[in-house]
Every structure is written in structure tokens, then in C-alpha cells.
Amino acid sequence: MPVLVITALVLALVIKTFVIQAFYIPSESMENTLLVNDRVLVNKLVYRVRDIERGDVVVFSGVESWDPEVQVEEPSNPVTAFARWVGVAFGVVPGEKDYIKRVIGVPGDVVKCCDATGRVTVNGVPLDEKSYLYPGDVPSDKEFTVTVPKGRLWVMGDHRSVSYDSRMHRSDAGGGTIPIDEVLGRAFVIVWPFSRATTLSIPDTFGQPALHAPPP
């Protein structure tokens, strides 16, 4: 039995590190797309075969200037620390340094808020965000214009009024953008609770042909 347990844990470690990992949603920043206590699966291989796309929901880690979405006391007991690691690996408990947001701008994009009707624009093209924006929220209550640097992303939560995202980090070294190298993978499905199980597809507004043209 101990051999089976060890084998299972090693297999879980390999899968968690290289293939798919479950993540626990700890905050309201992505409502109503993702609710507190949802569990999602994150594909860690997808960005080896394609670039990150606008509209992807991504999990990223290690942005030191961002406050944790959940405060977690580090266990002092090694057994408790190991149990917590297993819990994070299986999406049972949240990881303190993990964040989940929607990609709005990729390298080279000019992201702006807002146009004359209050919409976020990417490369001059307004986004129709009604399908995922939290009911009653405006696209942004903060004005900004940013050109996304090479190797970085502009990310925002769907629940804009409570999401601490790229908009709140304009004074950081990256101007609010996050390093692509810190992206762990793409959230592609809600697996828990079963009543909310669904895939996380890219909203249609990000498929507008004009959006993919170089900025003027």
C-alpha cells in the first residue's frame, strides 16, 4: 500500500508540473464566469503549441508586486506543509501566489479605456464584453492607455469593480502588464461543483478580424 501511495503522489506531481493542474477559485474577481469555490482545470501544455490569445482565461504566478488574492499562513509543521502542497496540487485549497484573469491584450496591442461609449478598445476596436462582464459593472472605472510590451500581457478580471488587475499596477515596472513566462496555463473547464461544469471558451468579441490588425 505505501508503494501505491508513493506512486500515486509521484504521478500526481508529474501531471501537476507538466500537463494539467486543478485550481481553486479563492476570490470574486472573475465572477460570474468563475465563482468562489469553483475548481477549474488548467492546461499547462497548450502554450507549447500555440500563442496565448486575447480572451483566454489564464493562471499566472510569481508577480511579486501583486497582493495575494487570498492570505495563507505558511505551515511550520512539515507534515502539514506537505498536506497543504497536496491540497493545492489537487485544487482543494488555494495557492497564495496564484492569480486567474482574462487576457485582454497581447504583445504589441494598444489597450485603451474608454471610448466614447465607455468600452475598452484593443487596437482601436471596441470590445463587446456583455457576455462575460459582471452584471452592473462598467468595463473600467479607471482610464488607461497602454501598449503591451514584448513578452507581456494585459489582464483583467471579469468582475471589474472588485478585481485588482493590470489597471491597479500601472506604476509597476511592467506598467501593469504581467510576464508571459509567469503564465502557468489556460483554464479550460470548470469541474466543480458539477452543477456548474462547463468549458471556458474565448468570447466571440475577441474573434473580430479588425482586432488582429496591427495598431494604427
TrEMBL record:
Residues 4-192 form the Peptidase S26 domain. One of its GO terms (biological process) is signal peptide processing. The active site is at residues 29, 101. Pfam families: Peptidase_S26. Its main location: membrane. It is a single-pass type II membrane protein. The keyword Metal-binding does not apply. Keywords: Hydrolase, Protease. It catalyses: Cleavage of hydrophobic, N-terminal signal or leader sequences from secreted and periplasmic proteins. It is found in: Cell membrane; Membrane. GO terms for cellular component: plasma membrane. Belongs to the peptidase S26 family. NCBIfam families: sigpep_I_bact. This is Signal peptidase I. The lineage of its organism: Bacteria, Bacillati, Actinomycetota, Actinomycetes, Streptosporangiales.
